[in-house]
Amino acid sequence: MPAEVKTHYRACNLCEAICGLEIKTQDDQVLSIKGDKNDPLSRGYICPKGTAMEDIYTDPDRLRKPVKRQADGWAEISWEEAFDTVAEKLVAVQEQHGQNAVAFYAGNPNVHNYGSMTHASVLRKAVQSKIHFSATSLDQLPHHLTSYSLYGHQSLIPVPDIDHSNYMLIIGGNPLASNGSIMTSPDIPKRLKAIQQRGGRFIVIDPRRTETAEIADQHLFIRPGTDAWLLMAMLNTLFAEDLINTGHLTDLLVGIDEVAQCL
Ligand code: SF4
After folding, report:
1. Which tens digits make up the pLDDT trace of 29-42?
2. 134 Cβ contact list (under 8 Å, min separation 6)
């Protein structure tokens, strides 16, 4: 008698959109991976990477056990030997070349992995290297720095409420490719289209004709490196034309007069 077909509800950990998945399995075999229609965030959306997770799972080249290079090729070793070897070599490299000779890299999907979330910082502290690389350094550190300066913590990052916005201005972002990095908004095409369907608009400012710019209501090109001037000009107009209404945020905003004086 064939084994029972089971349905599992999981989240895709390949990127920050964390789409809900509905996975059907029979024994060890994955029968299908689809978007979970009842997931409140992704609402059934899934991108080709999510569907292809089975290929990672079944890839014959996938590392399932630690291996070590030998004179005649790779050989499986135990986890104990693997951990001992890594510890020994890391220490040896640092002893010979200095503490910063060991570097860390973090990006998708290891930043969405429980093991690295709970233990990576412990390892970093133990290794005491100043050299860290991350996808963050390309697309998120400015957000972190601004949030740290404004709100006191680098992770307190405001995100656009795309589902309730009627005007969305995207500067130098390409959410169609990134799936809304930082916004954590799966199915960006549908969400952007919904802005237009409820009578709103979204505008892209970008020197490149991106995928998002292609479907925007308006695409404004900008000379690379002049973003700061554009933003200053926008600020200047807000003050010059008396368009600022701080509303219920008035008590929270400090230093607004100083901003005006800088322009
Ligand atoms: S957008 Fe694709 S890769 Fe990212 S979480 Fe969703 S299915 Fe996974």
Report:
1. 999 999 999 999 99
2. 104, 105, 106, 107, 111
Angle at 91 between CA 103 and CA 73, to 5 degrees: 80
In the predicted model, is pLDDT for residue 136 greater than 80?
no
Measured from CB, residues less than 6 Å from any atom of ligand 1 are 12, 14-15, 17-19, 46-47, 49-50, 179, 186
Closest CA to 84 of 66, 102, 103: 66
In words, the CATH class of domain 5-58 is alpha beta
Contact 212, 192 (CB under 8 A): yes
> Token match 């405001």: residue?
158
Indicate whether 252 pLDDT > 80: no
What's the gap in Å between 88 CA and the centre of ligand 1? 37
Helix (H, G, I), strand (E, B) or coil at 106: strand
Domain boundaries, given as residue ranges, for the chain: 5-58, 63-97, 162-262
Q: Is the pLDDT of residue 159 over 70?
A: yes
Mutate-to-test residue for ligand 1 from 14, 16, 108, 113, highest number of ligand atoms within 8 A of CB: 14
Rounded to two decimals, the pTM is 0.75
How far is the C-alpha of 101 from the C-alpha of 177, rounded, in Å? 34
pLDDT band at 131 (very low <50, low <70, confident <90, very high): very high
Q: How far is CA 87 from CA 58, 66, 103, 126, 159, in A?
A: 30, 14, 14, 11, 40
Residue 105: what are its φ and ψ, rounded to 5°?
-130, 135
Q: Could you report the per-residue pLDDT of 172-202, keeping only the tens digit for each?
A: 999 998 877 788 888 899 999 999 999 999 9
Question: Does domain 162-262 sit in CATH 3.40.228.10?
Answer: yes
Mean pLDDT on 49-75: 92
